[in-house]
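Re: weekly structure request thread

Next one in the queue (55 aa):
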Amino acid sequence: MEHAKHLLKETDNSIQSIAEQIGYLNVISFYRVFKKVQDVPPGEYRNMYRASPDT
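Done, posted below.
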């Protein structure tokens, strides 16, 4: 999940692509696990860090 967080913050890769890169065959499974661990969905996580110039 740390690698997924890094990819969300540092790349423009799609969430589908990121899910596949870290080993999820189904993006919905990735989405559910990410949201459970981070308390926000992957797209919202990405937007939070993109909006903050300090990170």
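The chain has a mean pLDDT of 93. The chain has one domain: 2-51.
Next request, please.
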